[in-house]
């Protein structure tokens, strides 16, 4: 998801009678949404605090969901939080920085989900490891875009986040234990345990309150210090590297924290920006390079192209969008396109879309190419009715900047690696139902890590139009 705004502030409001809590730790549990495999109950002694040893585990985050705008339209994972640990299903989102979970007592939190998972509210009072986070603590002050003087002793650290689709969440920070699956052998995991601060969501609005794609929260994989990845990395538990491989046809896939040694990916530099931005050079449709102004994808002034696993569709500047659609149109001169839900260009087509429509190639700095087949940019809304998963970002920008953003659909069926240490993003076409090899930094050993699909019934059948979901989850700005 692309976050529009994040606000961190201070609240004196005691949403929960935290003061009466003994010092409690909240534990995040990570569950396999995909596989439902049993984890060995071996307890991993993660912390050698005496020597501050770097453990740097590879972590397996089980994936569920899929990228189709007509079914789940999102990918999620299962984590375990608290003592005793409880399962929470959260959307994985490279477009935002914060982990937050719907909390007990929350207003307008969804009660049920059409994703086939049961929802859970996190209750800090029910976790013996939960702790409050006050506004003068580092996690709060470093997340603030504009640290003010409003913080007074004993006040909680509050936050508010607004995503690109207009939905929002607000609440306050808590600290608790999160439990994840450390890769400990070929297709084997044990627990890794870490203490992290995260958002306890008390108010949701927009799509986040609907039951259709409802989850317990969002796990932001952004670069900010507030992200779970940054917190685990600063506790020397993991390297700041993660990868995803979203299976576009089966749903589920692979989500790993740590170094992937197989397959190897070709990379492009990450542009220093709030999101994961890279430099798009040009676009080729069916072998023809689009004729565009040279500065259309310029990187200065907050441009560049956002890579966002939390957004379903791809957003292109008006001029680019029109040319892409024109070229797609030209491939089938006898079929007249129609518009669905005022925004999607669709075609009645009974053949194999890969044979009837052009391949689109996005070319990036350092000669990295993202090759997108027609079945990856089209989604079927009804039998033989195919819609293009691209949007004109001019129509979404509400007077703001025209963004270029690549979402789930075009990122699927590739292993995409975000290396925050080397400041690169890379990918390679890959079978996301197969396995990858990750490195355990402690032993130097390489282990196979398999795909998961936490979605109970696999991918849902295509639904009729009128229920197209799409998620635009990136934070637009801080306020
Ligand atoms: C984020 O963390 C790093 C390393 O701990 C630190 O150097 C940096 O100042 C922090 N950034 C912010 C904005 O607090
Ligand atoms: C997680 O770590 C804490 C502190 O190190 C420990 O007390 C707790 O038992 C661990 N939880 C699990 C489930 O391993
Ligand atoms: C992808 O890998 C899975 C598991 O190894 C295998 O069953 C499947 O046939 C592969 N798909 C393709 C297209 O090669």
TrEMBL record:
Top-rank taxon: Eukaryota
Active site per database record: 93, 308
GO biological process: proteolysis
Domain annotation Peptidase A1: ranges: 75-428
Pfam families for the chain: TAXi_C, TAXi_N
GO molecular function ontology, one term from the record: aspartic-type endopeptidase activity
Transmembrane domains' residue ranges: 461-478
Keyword Nuclease: no
Signal peptide residue numbers: 1-24
Similarity remark: Belongs to the peptidase A1 family.
Name the record gives this protein: Peptidase A1 domain-containing protein
Organism: Deinandra increscens subsp. villosa
Upper taxonomic lineage: Eukaryota, Viridiplantae, Streptophyta, Embryophyta, Tracheophyta
């Amino acid at each position: 998801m692309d976050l529009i705004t994040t606000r961190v502030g201070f609240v004196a409001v005691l949403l929960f009678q935290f003061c009466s809590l003994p010092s409690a730790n909240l534990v995040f549990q990570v569950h396999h949404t995909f596989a439902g495999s049993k984890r060995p109950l071996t307890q991993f002694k993660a912390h050698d605090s005496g020597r501050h040893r770097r453990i740097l585990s590879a972590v397996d985050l089980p994936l569920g969901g899929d990228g189709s705008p007509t079914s789940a339209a999102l990918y999620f994972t299962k984590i375990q939080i608290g003592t005793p640990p409880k399962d929470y299903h959260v959307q994985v989102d490279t477009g935002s920085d914060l982990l937050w979970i719907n909390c007990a007592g929350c207003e307008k939190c969804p009660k049920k989900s059409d994703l086939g998972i049961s929802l859970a509210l996190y209750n800090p009072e029910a976790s013996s490891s939960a702790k409050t986070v006050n506004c003068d603590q580092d996690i709060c002050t470093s997340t603030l875009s504009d640290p003010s003087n409003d913080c007074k002793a004993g006040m909680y650290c509050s936050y508010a986040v607004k995503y690109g689709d207009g939905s929002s969440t607000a609440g306050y920070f808590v600290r608790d234990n999160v439990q994840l699956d450390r890769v400990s052998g070929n297709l084997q995991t044990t627990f890794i345990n870490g203490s992290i601060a995260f958002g306890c969501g008390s108010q949701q609005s927009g799509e986040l309150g609907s039951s259709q794609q409802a989850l317990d929260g969002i796990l932001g994989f952004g670069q900010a210090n507030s992200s779970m990845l940054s917190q685990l990395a600063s506790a020397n538990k993991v390297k700041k590297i993660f990868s995803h491989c979203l299976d576009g046809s089966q749903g589920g896939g692979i989500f790993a924290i740590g170094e992937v040694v197989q397959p190897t990916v070709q990379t492009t530099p990450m542009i220093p920006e709030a999101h994961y931005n890279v430099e798009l050079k040009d676009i080729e449709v069916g072998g023809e390079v689009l004729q565009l102004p040279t500065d259309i994808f310029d990187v200065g002034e907050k441009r560049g192209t956002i890579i966002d696993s939390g957004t379903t569709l791809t957003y292109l500047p008006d001029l680019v969008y029109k040319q892409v659609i024109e070229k797609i149109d030209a491939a089938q001169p006898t079929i007249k396109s129609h518009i669905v839900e005022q925004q999607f260009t669709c075609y009645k087509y009974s053949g194999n879309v890969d044979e009837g429509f052009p391949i689109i190639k996005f070319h990036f700095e350092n000669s990295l190419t993202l090759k997108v087949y027609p079945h990856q940019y089209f989604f079927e809304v009804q039998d033989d009715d195919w819609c293009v998963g691209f949007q004109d970002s001019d129509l979404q920008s509400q007077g703001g900047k025209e963004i270029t953003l690549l979402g789930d659909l075009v990122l699927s069926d590739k292993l995409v690696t975000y290396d925050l240490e080397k400041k690169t993003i890379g990918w390679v076409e890959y079978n996301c139902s197969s396995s990858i090899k990750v490195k355990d930094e402690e032993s130097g050993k390489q282990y196979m890590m398999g795909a998961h699909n936490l979605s109970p019934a696999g991918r849902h059948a295509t639904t009729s139009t009128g229920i197209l979901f799409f998620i635009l989850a990136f934070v637009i700005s801080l306020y």
